[in-house]
Amino acid sequence: MQSYLELLKDVLWTGEKHEDRTGVGTLSVFGRQWRHDMQSGFPLLTTKKIPLRWVFEELRWFLSGSTDVQDLQEEMVDIWDEWATEEQCQRFGREPGDLGPVYGHLWRSFGEMEPFDVSRQPGCGYKGVDQIAQLLNDIETNPNSRRLIVSGWHPFQQTRVALPPCHTLWQIKCHESDKSMSLHLYARSIDIFLGLPFNIASYGLLLEMLCKVTGYKSRELVISFGDLHLYSNHVEQAKLQLSRKPYDLPTLQVHESFTVEQMGGTLQRLLDFRWGCFQLSNYNYHPSIKADVAI
To answer: Of the N and C termini of the chain, which has fewer Cβ atoms inside 10 Å?
Structure first.
């Protein structure tokens, strides 16, 4: 995606040197925005390989309400392991692997103050506000609403986790003129080299999934940034990526599981998606570029 590369150039060449909590240091810009027409192709980076299955499994984990890293590990996804160690969890009095009130908790149980017990029965027994169920209901009953919002920022709970939510709020817009849907994400803090390509693909998937279960087609994905940064130990990797010519974007087809009709309403249909429901076509990409995660 050329639009991503232009954003990367902006950060690399105009970013201010900035100290950060990791001690690594960054080049940082503030208040940028990125837009993508979903009808032009699925927004998956081609200048390095992005493992879309991992992106989906993390998204499905968020949607399930789980805060247990084991659920991701069972799908052979290790991207949250650094924040689920015994050392990290002990800071908050939790057992290793228990991440506390991260995305899944906030999306499915916003407002709950007590330790979250994942029942593995999504939608049943949660305390607080199930924002995903509420969103789907509002799309179906009041699509013209300007309140189709899911919040991932809780001022109290952000002090109870090793990594507070970076993508903090997203809003849906239903365009009734052509029965299409757009998604606008606000991200307080994004690592442009490692994090942003995942975030773009994740919210692109989320938009397509929401469209599938509500009968809309995807229109536009928009991301607004607070602090957008490149870690100092990713500079050479960023330059390598910018030297590569992007390929055409792939296409994504979304199918529903054969069990959907047996499972009931719109929320369960959303939760029922599995990796086999997606068909990614014509994904051509340059090789992966290794870079260390700043913890």
So the answer is: C
